[in-house]
Amino acid sequence: MAVAQVIIDIPAQQTNRPFDYEIPEELSDIAVPGVRVLVPFGRSGHLRQGFIWRTQDKSEFAGRLKPIAQILDLDPVLNAEMLGLASWLAEDTFSFLISCLQTMLPSALRANYQRRFYLTAPLAENDPVNQLLDHEASGLIPDKIDSALLAHLKRLEQSQQLRIEYQIKQKTKIKQEKQYSGCLQMTEYQDLFNQARANAVQQRQLLQLLVAEPSFAGNVKTWQAQLPELKSSTLTQAVQKGWLKEALVEVYRQPEVESVTTTKQQLTDEQQAAYEAIIAAISDAQNQTFLLEGVTGSGKTEVYLDAIAYARQQGKTALMLVPEISLTPQMVERVQSRFPHEVAVLHSGLSIGERYDEWRRIERGEAQVVVGARSAAFAPLKNIGVLIMDEEHEGSYKQDDMPRYHARDVILKRAETYHCPVILGSATPSLESRARAQKGRYQLLKLTKRPNQIQMPTVNVVDMRQAEKVAGKSDFSLQLITEVKKRLERHEQSVLLLNRRGYANFIMCRDCGHVIKCPNCDISLTLHRDIQALKCHYCDHQEPIPATCPACHSSKIRDYGVGTQKIEQQLQELFPEARLLRMDVDTTSRKGGHQRIIRQFGRHEADILLGTQMIAKGLDFPEVTLVGVINADTSLSLPDFRASERTFQLLTQVSGRAGRAAKSGQVFIQTYNPDNYAIQLAAKQDYETFYQTEMRLRHQGGYPPYFYTVLISVNHAQEDQAVKKVYQIQRWLQPKLSPQAIVLGPTPRMITRVNNQYYYQLIIKYKNEPRLLIALQTLIMNMQGKNNRGFQLRIDREPLQFM
DNA sequence: AGCACGCCGACT
DNA sequence: GTCGGCGTGCTC
């Protein structure tokens, strides 16, 4: 009897091992590893989705095996490489196999479990179940249902007044579109036209078109291209009247863009040297990692594109990861125009269906070049020739829920499998990567110059302790404002950065000092003036802005801190004639909001772009000649050993936005710490000195890259419980560590309470602890069962956030 | 997550 | 004596 080991999708994920199932004879041909299956699970025998992990001849399991109910794929959705990658990922990130398998696939392939009830007897008029009805006698039972209502449903089921069915819906896969085509003779259309009422303008236009071309066909858009006034309802009516016939046609959701082919640009000497090193590794199938350290504007992208072109010439595929934020239309067009019809793009703006279509194009080999954000690291490419990660230092490459993977590690792993090179590119590499280049594990390639004699911007540090301020607007130095004014006069553009990391707008009472806090979390609420509400950035809590202080009823309650909205208002007062664009989480939260703003600014529809860190990347506009940093300091004072690194990166990146073309650029950095090394060196655009300085400090403090780190965090609704558990874990773990390992804590997390859960943590710094990783695997298993209800454990290897 | 098994309290 | 509370543990 053939047996399949199946990894099952159990919501609570209390198990991390496969379950054996019998493969029915008729399914034996297609029951191969990597296919999705439906299997009965548990006493209820309800179907759940799973993945075949392995197949074998017999089972070790003593009991009776249930058979696989259904196989969902004719071809496996995960090949051998992907299954191996999942297994490595699960171990590396201390996560469950099932969650790794799920994150590697587009969510369209994930099962959608739902419960429906069907009435078998009429309900009482006031029965609460009435609210759930969405059809005549049936309704959906929501996932989040209050337990009383669920219990009520179960009672009704027991008394046979209704029955509950469990269903697994596959999310829509194939998009279909209505196609309308003429189905009558020209003379018939002519007759209809003659009969049509004189005021039926739309119908007459439509018939006129059909008289001219009786077999015209196409979707709504095609028809509207001919008749711009045409409404889709007119087409529907025409179908009803028998003038047209309609049919459903399968379409890809992202039709391929018609693009012009652009060719290779002339490379500078430095670019050429980097290119040659990379292509040698591609043609020799060497698993070599390159760190491409190039100053802003030095043309790293051109090197990437040429490397991809070389891989394509060799008949190989290529993957390029970029941070979500720089996945702009300009960027995508640049790749698409270089490799027409070969590119698949994966980013968060895609709908589930669009994402699946792109995934399918890659999987079928129809797209050989993939550009995407973090999760694109799992793109189902085969025969990869080169893997690229742009802005390699970016924190967004690490996922911050399970599995907590870093896309850099994923592509390094894939490169091992494909024996191909990896290019990590950045103007400000992470210290981890730069240190590896120092040790020779990565090969360092440098681009120190901008092509075409374009100058690096000149950077001025403005000492805000002594600078003359604009009257009444203490956030602006006179110097910066004068520069902005000059740009407005010359019709050039300015970019202003508000460094808001770790800084928020909060509400405080001037009389008693009371700060309005979130009822669920230990954090003050942030003011959002556009929606007239106070919001908590850690849970979903939201409340109206109070008119008086809730503690002392004084009316002198006002907001503190610097927010983009406030700065925007002040700028508008200073320059009433200037066209301003604001870019922050509030203005970009809607789909495409980010790209809309960038496009607008690119068309020079605004003079000043004001924004948070998101403006530091991805924009490349020739008219920008001024970059101003309003407050460089805020990110320096955070209790995180990476504070300097992040500040340096942010300032360097944003400075690089100035003077990308013929016009030279200037940068003004306002700060209260003008002597700080991160600020000084960012002003000089001197990465190498920053690297040396920061490495010394990391060495003294015993931080990465000199030590590895693991963060272990426990949370519970009761604070004493969380404390007890974290100490218990420490006592258990300590004896398993060598004396060289350093344990920090246990300590409460900086924001101890979030969503009414108390968080306590332990940080372990180590160099070589073979027993630690095994111990942590054990810990995660132990925490699942028995007396650990109500606790959540989180293990984060090489965490980027320590707070 | 479901569902059953199992060991304690208030009832026909 | 029994019915049922939901704590505990298993699901191929």
Automatic annotation (TrEMBL):
A cellular component term (GO) from this record? primosome complex
Q: How is the cofactor bound?
A: Binds 2 zinc ions per subunit.
Task: Kindly list the positions annotated as binding Zn(2+) 2.
Answer: C518, C521, C536, C539
Cofactor(s) listed: Zn(2+)
Cross-referenced Gene3D superfamilies: P-loop containing nucleotide triphosphate hydrolases (3.40.50.300), PriA, 3(prime) DNA-binding domain (3.40.1440.60)
Domain Helicase ATP-binding: residue ranges: 281-447
Any idea which positions bind Zn(2+) 1?
C509, C512, C549, C552
* GO BP field: DNA recombination; DNA replication initiation; DNA replication, synthesis of primer; double-strand break repair
The superkingdom listed in its UniProt entry is: Bacteria
- SMART domains annotated for this entry? DEXDc, HELICc
One Pfam family per UniProt: Zn_ribbon_PriA
Q: What class of enzyme is it?
A: isomerase
Residue ranges occupied by any Helicase C-terminal domain in the UniProt entry: 533-698
UniProt keyword annotations, A-Z? ATP-binding, DNA replication, DNA-binding, Helicase, Hydrolase, Isomerase, Metal-binding, Nucleotide-binding, Primosome, Zinc
Q: Does the keyword S-adenosyl-L-methionine apply?
A: no
Its Gene Ontology molecular function terms?
3'-5' DNA helicase activity; ATP binding; ATP hydrolysis activity; DNA binding; zinc ion binding
The protein's annotated catalytic reaction(s) are: ATP + H2O = ADP + phosphate + H(+); Couples ATP hydrolysis with the unwinding of duplex DNA by translocating in the 3'-5' direction
Enzyme Commission (EC) number: 5.6.2.4
The record ties this protein, via PANTHER family, to:
PRIMOSOMAL PROTEIN N (PTHR30580:SF0)
Purpose: Initiates the restart of stalled replication forks, which reloads the replicative helicase on sites other than the origin of replication. Recognizes and binds to abandoned replication forks and remodels them to uncover a helicase loading site. Promotes assembly of the primosome at these replication forks.
Describe its partners and assembly state.
Answer: Component of the replication restart primosome.
Query: What family classification does the UniProt entry report for this protein?
Result: Belongs to the helicase family. PriA subfamily.
Identification of the protein by name: Replication restart protein PriA
Q: What's the source species' lineage?
A: Bacteria, Bacillati, Bacillota, Bacilli, Lactobacillales
